Amino acid sequence: MLNNIAIIIFIGIVFGVLVGGLYHEVFNCVEKLISKFLFKINFMRNFHRIISVLIACAVTFLFFLIGLIMKPLIQNYLWVYFYKSFFLGIIFGGIVKSYYGRNFKK
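The chain above was modelled as a monomer; its predicted structure follows.
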């Protein structure tokens, strides 16, 4: 069990930045895979696009819940420090990704 608040906050920020930086890739990958699969089984063209986006949204939402794997390692009264820093890390990771993605696109 982790008892040090500084380590818990650091782990939360690191997990959050990773999730915040990777959520767009997860969404695009799942959407493309589902779209190809539905196209192979010959769905209507517009309908398979809508279904693939909805499934990709659900998978991306589940990807945000990856921080729950730390729940058994952190005591209940310290959990608030982890999830606050985790969500701040997600926001920070998304901002950094959008900033660097905008500046380095060719």
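The chain is about 75% helix and 0% strand.
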